[in-house]
Structure formats: structure tokens, C-alpha cells
Amino acid sequence: MKEKKSYVCSSCGYSTPKWMGKCPQCGEWNTLEEKTERPVSAARRASGGRTYYAPESTGGANRLKSVKTNVNERIITGISEYDRLMGGGIVRDSVSIISSPPGGGKSTLALKIANNTAKQGLNILYASGEESEGQIKSRADRILDGIDENIWIISTTSMNTVLGEIERINPDIIIVDSIQTFALEEFYPSRAGNPTQTMECAGELVRVAKSSSKPRAVIIIGQMNKQDELAGLRALEHLVDTVLIMEGDTQDELRSIIASKNRFGSTGEMGFFAMTEKGLVSIENPSEFFMTKRAENEAVSGSALTVVREGSRPIICEIESLVSKSFMPYPLRTGEALRKEQLNTIIAILEQRCGIGLYDKNVVIKITGGLKPREQSINLAVMISIVSSIYDKPVPNNTAFIADVGLTGELKKVPAVESRLRELARMGFKNVYIAKTEGNIKKPEGINIYEMKSIREVIISIFGII
User: Fold this and answer.
1) CB of 83 within 8 A of CB of 89?
2) Beta strand pairing status for 217-222 and 173-177?
3) Kind and range of the H or E element at 404?
4) Which one of 201, 254, 287, 369 has the largest count of C-beta atoms within 10 Å of its C-beta?
5) Which residues pair with 107 in a beta bridge?
6) Are strands 404-405 and 448-452 parallel, antiparallel or unpaired?
7) pLDDT (tens digit, 9 = 90+) per residue, 338-397?
């Protein structure tokens, strides 16, 4: 029987029986690599291609009701934002992926996790295919307050070597940086980074993590492609338990991590970190980070406060607007955290429903701290900040706005308004404007709630003019 040859794209996984210079699926050049498929034996063909395995010592299949879970047996890293993202700590037999653009801080975070858990008496194996042991030691000396003796380090691109070290050291946590740099000898000549190599290496790590004799936590560092997505096949995300995506410009202090997948916690949860000389530091109170502290008599025009939800947590953020005379045929419309279409819609509502002329005005929107909200609850605050800038009249510092605004100018309700109100009360706010509700909402102590029907009513209430 002859071996069957095919060519697989290392970028998207497309397969073709003939070599081509350009992949017809993703358009990349020189990414098709030869792959040899071994012939299936006659005995296996006779059985329909199926292979049967004897039950393991565990006794084979078990009743679901009788299966014991270890979700509550978590490893607490001591990094509060990371533990919260993971649902309360690292599950002992879990596999997680952390990905970010180059320089995002993923290796720095991994080292901190390693050192914090090693201080608890756990053995940690840190395998790096990108940096030498000396480079990792230099970073550790810079960001860690003392390196624990339970951290083991190896610099190699051979997954076979890593698996051998796992057997020798018997670690509790394994960190692999990064998965796209490793290869298994069994799949030679496929190079590291090839979709087949990446999936097979990840599969071996999953097998190690889920071992019934010794469950281990595995943290995989993953590279990102040009589209800011996890490099490789999407099947890699399905293989693991948790996918964490780090966001934030390398020049900014703020770093955010989003749990795009989490089998042991809330999907969509977000954690906030500040990049310092000592590496990533958890931002314990994000509401303070995303608003400017001012005394009651220091209110400035063009600023309004709102509450957004990132995951399950409400965060107070400040919307800043600058409206100026335009001397160009097409006024400037810029929003760092808003889509241009969303900003144009907001301006059109103000012009049509409130009679505020902005056709000859430049409008610039900014959110303090670089936060990028993904919900519409900020629309009322954006409008109020624009009106405040136009009339040069400040909004009281103890007042916030929580509502979406429809094309009719009517205020629309937003979800989880009660948790947002509690966050405002915790931070000492006195007044909040929301959409008119049909049912009763629990009012936190010390805060006045104003339920309004339209944006016009809110403007009259705050500024006394329209």
C-alpha cells in the first residue's frame, strides 16, 4: 500500500493533494507543507476503520451522578484580578490559554503566577520555547520579590523533552510559553507552529492535566496573529478549558484581560491590571481608576459619569467631550472608545430631538483610563457630556447617568441597573438619572434616583435650558 501525500496550510489548515504557492483559502504564500498519511491496515479496514481499546483501571464508564468533582479544589494565586477571572482560582486539572499581542505582559503574568503558587509549596515547571533560561531569570529578578526554589525552568522547543521533565519533576502547575514554538518528534518534518504540531502538543498537555493519577494545572501562552486573534486553528480554543485574551496598548499603563471562554467561571468576565516596573499589578478598585477625582466645587464642563458592566462587575467611568467650532466643510467626529456610526447617531438625536445644532461643530469623545465599553448604557452620559461642553456648564460631580437613548429621544432601560446603583452608592454618589421603569427597583441608601422619559427632560433638569 502506498502512502498518501497531501499539502496542509500552516496558517489556516487548508488541505490539498497538490502543492501550490498560494493558499486558496487564506491567501498566504508558501504556507503549504507536505504531510504523509500512513495507509490503514486491512484488519482495521475490515472493522470499518474503528479501533477498540480496553477499559482503563478506572473501570470504564461511570454513572454521572457518582462522579466526584474537584472544581472547588482551586489554587489561589494571590493575584486578585486573575483569581476572579478564573472563577475563584485555578482548577487543579484545568488547561488555560493566555494570549496577547507582543509585549502585552502575558509572560510577566505567568511568572508572577508561578512564583506566588510556588510559595504555597507547589512544584512549578516553566517551559519556554522563545527565551533562554538567562532571559527569564533576568525578568524574574526584575519583577519578583525573591524567586522561590520550587520553580523549575527549561528552555527547549521539544515537547518530548518537556513531557520527560514532567515525569521527572512531577510538577503541580505547568507553564508553556508559547505553544506555537513547540513540536513533537512523532510529527517530523512538520515544523513548530504548524497547526498539526500545535494541536498535538496541546493535546498532550491536556492528557497530562486530566490524568486521574496526578491532576495538574496547565497554563499555555499563545501567540496572536495579525487580526489580534489566537494564532492557529480555532479547534485549539475548543480543546482547552479557559481562554484569556489580554488587551491594551503596550504604551499604556492599563491592561485588561477578558475571559472569552471559561468552563469554571463566568464567560465575558474582565480583569484590570496596571503595568508597572514590577510587572502587572491588579487594579483593586477600577471605579477609582476610570474617573477623575475632583472636589464638589471643582466640576468642569464636558464631563459626565456613568456605570458600565464588564463581565459581572459594575465600573464607574468618566465620559469627556470637547465641542469646538469647525472651519472645514466636514466637521471632525472622533471617539476613542465609540464607533463613528454610534457617535454620528448620538449627534443626530441631539440635533433632531433637542434642537441642538452640531452641524458646524467638531465633536471629540474620550473615556478616562482608556476603557472601551461594549454596551449602550453610556449613550445618555455621552449626550450629557456633549451638551455640557456646548453650553460650558459643568455637571455636578456627585451625579451619574445610566440609560440608552433611542432614535425618538426616549430613554431606554439597561440590564442590571440595581447593581450599578449599588456601585454608585458605594462610591458616595448622591444623584443618578435612569430611564423610567414600570416596576419598583431597590434603592440604595443615600442616593436619589431620577426616572426620566426622554433626553430632553434630563437636559432641562441638569442645565435648565434646551
Assistant:
1) yes
2) parallel
3) strand 404-405
4) 201
5) none
6) unpaired
7) 888 999 999 999 999 999 999 999 999 999 887 888 889 999 999 999 999 999 999 999
